[in-house]
Each structure stands twice: as C-alpha cells, then as structure tokens.
User: Which sequence fits this backbone?
C-alpha cells in the first residue's frame, strides 16, 4: 500500500488562481504608487522619507528582472521586500507560496530568504490593516514611533501617543462586546453594579475608560484587540489595567476587599502576552484577593460577591449549614485567626479545606478530651469520612460521655438492676432502637427478669406481637412494672439511683444497692 506523504508544516505550496491574482494585482498597484504602502505623517517630520527615496530608485528597474532579483537581496529589509513585490508584478504569476500564522490564521506570501517573513508579508498585504503594520514594526520600534492602521487610513503620529478618533472607533468595534458609550468611555451594562467584579482598561492618552464584567467578556483579550492595529515601542505604556472587585459589603463603602484593585505584575504580564483572557484575568485577580487578605484589625468573612465584615452570624446564615455544620463552623472560626473569603462553597467544603489544620481542635472543643478527639479524627481520616460525619461521631461520643458522667457508677448490681441499668443507659446514650436491642439480647428465663423485660418493651412501645413469648403471670407483672421502667429511663443525676432501687423493689427484690 502506498504511504501518504505528510505535508511539512510551512512547506511552500502552489498558489491558487484567486490568491495569485490578488497578490499580483496588489504588487502592480504598489509598483504604480509606492506611497500606498507608507503611513501618513501628521504635523511632524516624515520618518520614512529615506525609504521613499530608495523605493523611487528601485522602481526605475521595475522592468528589469535581473536587477530586481539583485535588489531583493541587498539593502535594508523594507527595500528588499519592495523589490520582491516588483518582481511579482513583472512576472505576473506566483508559482509557489509560503505561509505564516498571524493571530491564529495562516497568511500566504511570496518567500524571499533574504527578507524577514513579517516584512515580506506586510508589504504584500499592505491593504489589510492587521498585516501592513508588520512591514513597519521594526522601524517604528527602533525610532519609538506610534503607528495606527485603519481600514481606509494609515497614520504615524511620530513620537506622540495620539490615536486618531477613527482608530479608536474602529478598535472599539473590533471588541464585539455589548458596551454602551458614556461620554468618552465604554462600559458593559453590568459595570458599577454591586456584586459584579469587572476589568477596567484605561486608554491613557485619549483618556478613555473601558469596563467589561466577567460575564460579558466571553474569553476575549481587550488589550490585544485594541493594539492589534497599533504599533509603538511599548504599547503597555499606553494602557492602565485594574480589576474592581465590587463586593456588596455590610461594612459600607470602606470595604478592605474593594480597595484591592491593583493587579499583580505577573498577572499583567500574562495578560499582555495573551495567555490570559479578560475573563481569566478577572478570575485570577479575584482568586488573589481571596487568598491574600490584607492583615487588618478584624477578621473579614465573605462568600461569593458578599462581604460580611466580621459578622459571623450573617456569614453563617448565608452558608445555610445544617445544625451540626453550624456548630463545627462556629468552633472552626473560633480556632482560626485568619479571614475567610470564598467564591462559592458548601459548609462541608469549607470544613474540609481547614480540617487537617483545625479538625482535632474542633473535635476537642466538642468532646473535651484531647486524646479522644485525636482518636476520632484519626479514625475519620482512615475511613475518609467527611468532616460532617466525623462531627456526628464526636457529638455522639460527647453526648455519651456527658450522660455517663451524670449517672452513678456501679461495681456490682443484682441481675434485675444490672439488666435495667443496661437498657436505660443504652436509651440515654444511643436512643430507643439501641435500648430495644439491649432488651432483646437478654436471654434469662428468670420470671422476674422476664417481667422486667416485658415492662421495658411496653415502655419503649415495642411489645406489640411479642406477648406469646411471655407467660400470663409475666405479662401482668410486666404491665405493673412499666411505669417504673419509664421513670428509670427518664431519670437523671441522683434520681437515677433511686429509680433503679424503686424498680428493683417493685420487682419483689429486697436487695439494697
């Protein structure tokens, strides 16, 4: 099977008839009027005069193929490119073309190894504003000149940064953003609204502000759009950049977060070189604000576009946590000294973010036992439980500890009292289901214990359908003991001991605890 030859990137290709015709026609127009290529110099010396003189000399040989070939290899780069263009006009054909990627599109041109590609391309495509600048970029930068290319005009303002009004109008049209003009300025409909962060580009010399919010930006890079037909020694000097956070702040106008409008130099550099879009620049700056809170007298709490200052309750209400999450967040904020500014987060996500740092401290605040808190934390980490689940375990343990500490401790109890104590403690620490399981575990056949067992089933509402397991005597006696069982499960502190003793006596035992 014959292998297909892979086309090498940038390899010369045969010109189509349409493309060939367009290149030849432009070359002939330039031959007839070399001034078409040059920018118009307004109110200052003509910085391109010497090139125009050279072009006149080269044009004398427009019908001499051999001389044009020699001139295309000698002299300054712009003059060589002009001689190459005259050769195209003379031959009237373009057999092969090279391509160069410019702002994401491939542009074809006639190649000359003795001339820089960008200059050749700019000369051969002088009718396109985006491309003609390439022919003069090296001259403008070396002489610190300002050049502005428009659809119907090409202007050099010398060493003065003074963009023509027509250029400003065309450049703003290239942004394709939904912006409205307000005096000299251009803003999207959301700029200035509370809670909407936006990028402000200040075009310094014409004193124009351009404002775009994150939603309207849609991935474009406005700096690149404004400068795509503009050449200067350093276009960055013509523009100022800032992002206005516009937090809705309960503290009023003097919000520390809203003062953070200056973009870091690394972000500015990425944006200028084109690796960040308008949207990404806004996002990156807002992330920087959230992760680099200025040291202030009070903690700052913010969620999304809302700043609550140091108001913990308002911050909590906005998060809408569950009861257990709220308790944990309150404890977390007590442990933390830092501000907490998040774009959007669930309570559990915030807890997870700070869990490794403050989790044990939060659990200790609940359990009041450092070793047990560490044990619960480590167990949760091993099982990869969420903070909310670990907190439930901690609260359960804390509840048990509190209940157990409030109840008397017994070394030895009579069998009936021991059974009743187990059921009651299970009910108090783990709830009804746990108490029922404890009752059903009791396997003694002693009539008194079985009567107490039925009494607890009655008290717990779990006796239905189980009467067949007991004798009539046990059922009657159990119904009698039900109130004693209820009282014991409800008893606390010192009253608990008395309730155990009362149940024991009511069961017919004369033993004292």
Assistant:
């Amino acid at each position: 099977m014959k292998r297909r030859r892979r086309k090498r990137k940038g390899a010369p290709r045969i010109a189509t008839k349409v493309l060939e015709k367009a290149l030849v026609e432009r070359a002939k127009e330039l031959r007839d009027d070399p001034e078409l290529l040059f920018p118009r110099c307004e109110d200052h010396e003509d910085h391109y005069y010497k090139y125009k003189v050279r072009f006149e000399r080269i044009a004398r040989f427009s019908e001499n193929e051999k001389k044009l070939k020699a001139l295309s290899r000698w002299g300054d780069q712009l003059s060589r490119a002009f001689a190459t263009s005259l050769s195209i006009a003379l031959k009237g054909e373009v057999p092969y073309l090279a391509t160069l990627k410019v702002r994401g599109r491939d542009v074809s041109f006639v190649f000359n190894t003795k001339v820089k590609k960008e200059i050749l391309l700019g000369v051969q495509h002088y009718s396109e504003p985006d491309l003609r600048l390439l022919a003069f970029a090296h001259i403008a930068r070396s002489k610190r000149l300002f050049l502005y290319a428009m659809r119907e005009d090409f202007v050099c303002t010398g060493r003065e940064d003074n963009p023509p009004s027509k250029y400003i109008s065309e450049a703003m049209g290239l942004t394709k953003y939904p912006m409205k003009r307000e005096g000299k300025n251009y803003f999207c409909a959301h700029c200035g609204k509370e809670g909407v962060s936006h990028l402000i580009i200040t075009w310094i010399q014409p004193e124009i502000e351009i404002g775009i919010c994150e939603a309207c930006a849609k991935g474009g890079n406005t700096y690149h759009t404004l400068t795509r037909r503009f050449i200067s020694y350093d276009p960055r000097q013509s523009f100022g950049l800032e992002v206005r956070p516009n937090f809705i702040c309960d503290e009023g106008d003097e919000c520390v977060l809203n003062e953070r409008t200056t973009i870091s130099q690394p972000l500015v550099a990425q944006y200028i070189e084109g690796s960040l879009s308008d949207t990404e620049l806004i996002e990156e700056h807002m992330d920087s604000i959230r992760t680099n809170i200025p040291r202030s007298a009070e903690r700052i709490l913010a969620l999304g576009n809302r700043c609550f200052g140091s108001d913990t309750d308002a911050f909590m209400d906005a998060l809408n946590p569950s009861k257990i999450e709220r308790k944990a967040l309150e404890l977390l904020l007590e442990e933390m000294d830092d501000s907490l500014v998040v774009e959007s987060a669930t309570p559990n996500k915030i807890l997870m973010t700070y869990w490794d740092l403050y989790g044990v401290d939060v659990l200790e605040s609940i359990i009041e036992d450092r070793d047990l808190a560490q044990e619960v934390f480590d167990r949760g980490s091993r099982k990869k439980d969420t903070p909310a689940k670990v907190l439930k375990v901690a609260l359960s343990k804390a509840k048990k500890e509190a209940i157990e500490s409030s109840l008397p401790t017994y070394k030895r109890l009579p069998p009936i009292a021991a059974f009743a104590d187990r059921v009651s403690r299970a009910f108090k620490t783990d709830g009804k289901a746990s108490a029922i399981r404890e009752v059903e575990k009791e396997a003694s056949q002693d009539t008194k214990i079985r009567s107490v067992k039925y009494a607890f089933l009655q008290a717990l509402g779990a006796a239905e359908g189980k009467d067949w397991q007991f004798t009539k005597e046990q059922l009657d006696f159990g119904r009698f003991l039900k109130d004693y069982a209820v009282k014991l499960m409800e008893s606390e502190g010192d009253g608990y001991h008395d309730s155990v003793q009362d149940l024991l006596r009511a069961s017919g035992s004369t033993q004292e605890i």
The mean pLDDT is 89. The first strand starts at residue 13 and ends at 14. The chain has four domains: 13-156, 165-291, 301-404, 407-506. DSSP finds 21 helices and 16 strands in the chain.
